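#struct-queue
[09:14] JT: dropping the first one here, sequence first, then the structure tokens:
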Amino acid sequence: MPTPKTKALPTVAEFIAALPDDRRATITTIHNAIRKAVPKLAPYMTSGMGPSPIIGYGKYHYKYASGREGDWFTIGLVAAKRDYALHICGGDKTGYLVEKNAAKLGNVKTGRSCINFKKLEDLNLPAAMALAKQVAKTGGIGAVK
């Protein structure tokens, strides 16, 4: 039985170039802000959280007390059909960075490590980039050092 073919992901540049003009402008602004804030976290394309491709920045290996382990992006950027998501996968013993700083991030909806917003103006980009810098120093959630 033949193995199913998986669709190759585009490069980051190809992905951004293929977006509609308005969405390309938003993603480009955030992408450039992330690259400036955390230049050591190399961007790459990935998938795994629904139908939309993800621009991942930096990779880390995690291992939880339950024994579950794997590899994940430190920061992720998604241009979904209707909105955008910025994942900042960092935290410590006191909680998740995004969750603890939700009030500073603007007119957005947050989860533990996800910031969802409809337009760039809704996101407090400097506050989000401050969290990006913090997670680049500390590593991702459950990171194995």
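[09:21] JT: and here's the second one, same format:
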Amino acid sequence: MVEITSPSTFQKDLKEKFNLYERVGVHEYWIVYPEENTICVFHLTHEGKYGRPEVYTEQDSINVGIFADFTIELPEVFA
């Protein structure tokens, strides 16, 4: 699941949707902060909770956890 934040939905994205996706077992949840060129990636633990996020910036690449051979180059995304 990928959420792109905006000022009008920021609270909903960080509280309601985060808790909903965790509760229903979404394995990987990305929150994109376009103004900061940053992405936080949450992974569901064995206990069914999201751990601390992995934080990526515009110079990084992200290996998509649910697809073994899929990498997203963030310099291209944020260009």
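[09:30] RK: nice, looked through the second one.
[09:31] RK: The chain has a mean pLDDT of 91.
[09:31] JT: good to know. Strands lie at 2-4, 28-33, 38-43, 54-57, 61-63, 71-73.
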